[in-house]
Amino acid sequence: TGNFVIGQEYHFDVSAAVVAGQEVTFVIDSDGAQSGGDAAFASSENGNTAIRPTLVVNLEDAAPQGLSVEVTGTAQDLGAGSSYSNQDLAGGVAYSPDGTSATLTGNAWKRYDLGYTLTADTVLAFDLSVADAGEFIAIGFDGDNNHANGISAFQLAGSHTWNGLNQSQRNGSGSYLIRVGDHFTGAVTHLVLAADDDSDSSADVTFTNLRVYEEALPQGLSVEVGGTAQGLGAGTSYSDQDLAGGVAYSPDGTSATVTGNAWKRYELGYTLTADTVLAFDLNVVDGGELLTIGFDNDNSHTNGVSMFQLSGSDTWNGLNQSQRNGSGSYQIRVGDFFTGAVTHLVIGADDDANSSSNATFTNLRVYEEAASQGLSVEVAGTAQDLGAGTSYADQDLAGGVAYASGGTSATLTGNAWKRYDLGYTLTADTVLEFDLNVVDGGEIIAIGFDTDNEFRNGISAFQLSGSDTWSSANQSQRNGSGSYQIRVGDFFTGAMTHLVLAADDDADSSVNVTFTNLKVYESSPGLSVEVGGTAQDLGAGTSYADQDVAGGATYTSGGTSATLTGNAWKRYDLGYTLTADTVLEFDLNVVDGGEIIAIGFDTDNEFRNGISAFQLSGSDTWSSANQSQRNGSGSYQIRVGDYFTGAVTHLVLA
């Protein structure tokens, strides 16, 4: 900045004067002269009148020169690496802008300086994406530049098997958390990445978010008690039943895999009350003769235990049988069966015949939760307790309703119809959302709204399942079990006084259905797009060109999902300037690709005069669209600026 003499030549060296993101302003003359090969900036003004045009230079950080690895919590730049052994024969490695991602292609082996001592607790974590596995993909450590004299490495993928590599992690694409110390220990000098493909050098693999750190294995089972994690240790043998196999714990202790013929008890002083809940996830590979969990206050299974059988070929009458459901998520109201002081948690996998039991307990929790007295519904984002409800019309004849999970779950059985006070005005934008699990659909399963206690004079309801057809209910949502997001305003509007749940079964009163996570809210139908990190509602869009001929677009999940059907082309107001750095990201699910599936940008309502678009799928080839992204269903991250730049006014979906 300052006063400059017209005609004087000025040179600016800004390489060390600014940082990325700063703006550098040049004040220059108007004659457009050039001197010494340095370009000046011309003006269209006449004469020598001084002008002050500005040149704004946006500086960006230089692309990293190599791999960034988080070592014990701190990012370290390991540089571009060097060739490893005599194997780095073709292709190479490319790094992401921040260095956290390295893509090896061809037949490339790289090593990076990393002085580290592998211990029994060393963990190597990363994400792996394999486009072409070649002959083998590997990662590991070494102390020299020779793979032939021993390398502490793991094969991750590939058509060949190299016996010099550990094969325990050969899982292809995915997220890895390798306990290196279970396989290798000692001082190493280098991290090694390998993508070997001697046959045609077509390997293509990306390592992302590499981390090396220390994490000691837990000494046993971790259980959340009253909201706080407690380490219960490795446990001890229970009664005289702990005969074979044992228990293996996950790194954080939240998972316990019981194998063979193993029974374990863990010290847990707790008083079971009427409100005590035991929750966990269970995966049964082999249920053996009996699989059980529960509580006891001594070391004998024969003098009374507070335990539940979960699986198994045998039935032990000493165990409660109400929870015998095998694999799944459990939330047992222990207080409905047992109360009183206990000293131990017990897990048993009994299999006297052949000791082949194999089951994993995960995320064990013990806590107090009063049984819900009624239904909880989220209304306009706020949970409302609607109470236990009352009988609806003259239809509530048998069975009833049970509430769980703080009232967010309601199970209707028998032949039950319930209504709940809910003063709400249904508008064109009202949405009713819930999950439905139908065990027995009976004759009618329905949900809806009403203004009195009589359905015969009209009810704003939807039939969801059942052997009969209820003529008073809308039939558009008859889909059985699943997740529902019903735009009620497309069918009914007006002031309502009650929410109604119906499970009708006059024939044998055997209906069994659960409504979960009920929500009522307003949501305008339209597309929500995250622009520069901020969600923008682009509305329902308008027809694009003369191509929007049939079908249409429906929006769900708060507008973050748009489903186009038929022969629909939509455009959405989106004023944006595409630059060399613009990225368009989305997920695509193609059920029927039709002739053309495309996405892009335009400045008017006509594609024939040019459109900045990409064809993604379809039987035809749209010559107006870029074809580089024609990959069908999947996750997309398109660097639009590599193909199109400039100001646009609309987003287009076709």
- The CA-CA distance between the termini, in Å, is 50 Å
Quaternary assembly? single chain
Form type: flat
Mean pLDDT over all positions:
87
Please provide a written account of the structure.
- The protein is mainly beta.
- It has 4 domains: 67-214, Jelly Rolls; 221-368, Jelly Rolls (Sandwich); 382-522, Jelly Rolls, CATH 2.60.120; 527-653, no CATH class.
- Helices cover 0% and strands 51% of the residues.
- The strands form 8 sheets. Strands 3, 4, 5, 6, 7, 8, 9, 10, 11, 12 and 13 form an 11-stranded mixed sheet that branches.
- Mean pLDDT is 87; it is low at 13-22 and 24-64.
Question: What descriptive keywords fit this protein?
Answer:
654 residues; mainly beta; Jelly Rolls; eleven-stranded mixed sheet
